[in-house]
Amino acid sequence: MLNQRLQQKLLQKLSPQQIQMIKLLEVPTLQIEQRIKKELEENPALEEGPDDEEVPDADAEGEAEGDSESEPSEEKDKDNDEFTIDDYIDDDETPEYRLQANNYSRDDEKRSEIPFADASSFQEYIESQLGLRDLSEKQKILGENIIGNLDEDGYLRRELSSIVDDLAFQQNITTTEEELETVLKIIQDLEPAGVGARNLRECLLLQLEKKDLSIPALKLAHTIIRDNFEEFTKRHYDKIIIRFSIKESALKAAIGEILKLNPKPGGVFNDPFTKISQPVIPDFILELSEDGFDLHLNSRNLPELHLSSAYNEMLRDYSRDKGNKKEMKDAVQFVKQKIDSARWFIDAIKQRQNTLLLTMNAILEYQKEYFIDGDETRLKPMILKDVAEMTGLDISTVSRVANSKYIQTHFGIFPLKFFFSEGLQTDSGEEVSTREIKRILQDCIDNEKKRKPLTDERLTAILQEKGYQIARRTVAKYREQLNIPVARLRREI
After folding, report:
1. Closest to 467 measured CA to CA, from 433, 429, 418
2. How far apart are CA 154 and CA 266, in angstroms?
3. d(CA 423, CA 430)
4. Residue 212 DSSP one-character state
5. Whole-angstrom Cα distance, residue 351 to residue 345?
6. Please, what's the b/e burial string for 105-133 (b: 16 or more CB within 10 A of its CB; e: otherwise)?
C-alpha cells in the first residue's frame, strides 16, 4: 500500500571543495603535474607564477561597491546559493586564431608528434606464416580458428572436440579432430618454437625437436621430458639417474639445456608494445645530515599558482556598474565562478601538501631507527591506525596518502606502503615486524644447501630457536608471499 508522509533526515554530504581535495590527495607527483596543467588550461582565472597582487574577496568587493540601487540582498543571497563549482559558463568568445600557433619550425613539429609503434599481434604473426604454407581452403579456415584460440602464452588450451563443435554450430563447417590435429601439427612447426602446444611438456618437446638431438645433452633432455616429465617436475633426480644409468654430470648438462627453453613462447610478443613501464618519481625526498633528517616534497616541476589580476580587475569593473542587465549579471556570475574555482583549487593544493608532509613526518618519527641506515630488521610494526592517531587524521586519509606515493632516501626509493606491516611477539614479549621475519626467511633460503633445501618444518624450528613464536602454516604463508617455492622444487644438483 502506497502512502505519503513528511520525514526529516540529517545527512552529511561532501562539499565540492572536499571532493576536490580527496581526489588531489590520491594522485602522485607525476599526475598532480598533469592535473595542474589541465586546470590552468580550463580556468582562465588561474595563472602560474608568483602572486604580485593581493586578491580581493569577490563577496567583500561586491558588498563594498553595492548601494541602494543594487539588487536586494535577498536576491543576492539567492544567487550565491545557486552558485556552485559545477555550474561553469563556457567562454565562446575566444577567437580561433588565439587557440593556434604557427610559429614552429618543421623540426619542432616533428618532435611534438607522438610516435606510435606499428606492430602486428601474436596471432597475426602466426597467420602470416601459415599463409606461406600450401594448404587447402578448408585447412586455412581450420588453421585460422586454431590460431584464434591460442592464448597470450602461445598455448592451445581448448580441446579439439570443442573447436569441432564451434565450427559446426557457428560456421556450418563439418570437420573431425583428426583434420584439426593435422593442421595443428603444421602450426606447431611455425615460429616461435613451441607455439600451439597444449601443455608445458609438449611445448618443451617441440622446442627440443627443433634442435640438434645428436648432441648428448639435448638428446638426454628430450628423453627426460618425453619419458620422465613427472619425475623431472618433482625434481626426483635420483630416480632419473637410476632409470637411465647416467652420471650426475650428464643430468646436470641436460637440465641446463632444458632451462634454456622458453615455457611461454607467445610472451615475447606481449612485452615490447603492450607493457610500458611507468617511471617512478618520488613524492618525498629525505636527506640525512649531521643535524638530522631533512624531509621535503618533490615539487620541482609544480608551478606557483595565483589568481589572475585581469579577472580581479574585471570583477571590480562589473561590481561598479550599477546596471541590472541580464548580460551583466551573467558576466559577474561567470567571473565570480572562475575566481572561486581557482581559489578552491589553490587551497586544495596547499592542503594536499600539508597533509602529505604531516603524514610522512609521522611515518618518519615512527620508523626513525630504520631511516638511519635502511636496515629492515629495525622496521617497527606499523598500521594505518598508528599513523592516524599520531596525526589526528582519518584512517582513510592516511590510506590515500600511502597509496601510490614514493619516498627517495639515501639508500633507495621505496613506496610508502613498504613501511606498513603487522607485528609478531617474541619470547621476550617484544613486538617485531613481520617484514623482519620475512627477511630472516629469505636469508635462510639464500644460504641453504641446494642439494638438501630447508623444509617449512625446519624453517619454523630455526625461527623458534631465534625467539620467534611462529607456526609452520605462517611460515608457509610468508614463503608464498616472497614467491619462494617449496623445498622440493628448490632442490638442485
Report:
1. 429
2. 4
3. 10
4. -
5. 10
6. eeeeeeeeeeeeeeeeebbebbbeebeee
Assign 3-class secondary structure to 410-438.
CCEEEEHHHHCECEEEECCCCEEEHHHHH
Return all residues near 365 (Cβ < 8 A) that are at least 6 apart: 390
Give the number of other Cβ atoms within 10 Å of residue 180's Cβ. Answer: 21
| CA–CA separation, 89 and 330 (whole Å) | 9
d(CA 479, CA 83): 57
358 in Cβ contact with 391 (< 8 Å): yes
Helix, strand, or coil (residue 278) = coil
**Cβ atoms of residues 385 and 372 within 8 Å:** no
Distance CA 23, CA 18 (A): 9
The model's pLDDT over 55-99, given as tens digits with 9 standing for 90+, comes to 445 444 444 444 444 444 444 444 444 443 344 334 444 444 333
Chain centre distance of CA 131: 39
What cell does 10 get?
540529517
Taking a C-beta distance cutoff of 8 angstroms, is the pair 406, 281 a contact? yes
Rounded to a whole number of angstroms, the CA Rg of the chain reads 34
Residues 286-305 as b or e (16 or more Cβ within 10 Å = b): beeeeeeeebebbeeeeeeb
One-letter identity of residue 409: T
- Tell me the three cell numbers of residue 423: 607485528
User: pLDDT tens digit string along 133-173?
Assistant: 888 888 888 988 888 888 888 898 889 889 888 888 888 88
What's at 298, amino acid-wise? Answer: N
Are 45 and 37 in contact by the 8 Å Cβ rule? The answer is no
- The whole-number average pLDDT for the span 229-237 is 86
Grid cell at residue 224: 627426460
Cβ proximity of 90 and 42 under 8 Å: no
| Cβ neighbours for 36, distance < 8 A, ≥ 6 positions apart | 302, 303, 305, 349
Whether residue 312 contacts residue 55, with contact meaning beta carbons closer than 8 Å, is answered with: yes
* Strand blocks (E) in 236-318: 284-289, 292-297, 305-307
Question: In 97-232, at which residue ranges do the beta strands (DSSP E only) sit?
Answer: none
Q: Which three cell numbers stand for residue 76?
A: 543576492
| CB distance 393 to 359 below 8 Å | yes
